Predict the 3D structure of the following.
Amino acid sequence: MRFLQIPRGQSLLQRCRPAVLKFWLPAVAGVLWSGVGIALCVTACGWLLPTRWPVNAAGAALGFGSGVLVHRFGFSRIAGRNIDRIAAQPDKVCLFAFQAWRSYLLIVVMVILGYVLRHSHLPLPVLAVIYSAVGTGLVLSSTLYYRRLFK
């Protein structure tokens, strides 16, 4: 049963923690933020495409414009705080330390809100504007992580 023994000075939690070099944290965060943002934008496009031309063009423009504001006044600040916190971390850190615990709570709230919105009676073009705004904000803010990675 040697494999169950924990080395001296380490708890079971410390031993099971997925540790990486902090260099990789901006890459992980950037890929996740980009992936979720692109998925939200693709979903929004799928909802806008079946609508008439003026409606889908206006929805796309409104979603993108709102997304720039979401990036500028919301997600870029969160990403900036995460980048500063990553820089202050030791060289080897937990893989999930790319954002603070408070940000994980924000993710849970956003997932619940997305579920509630998707199952609401709002028309799909309206939901598409909301989804594309959040998706655009995430994709634009993910570039901050990539800049840090290649700095």
About this structure: Residues 20-107+117-149 form one domain. The beta strands are 19-21, 92-94.
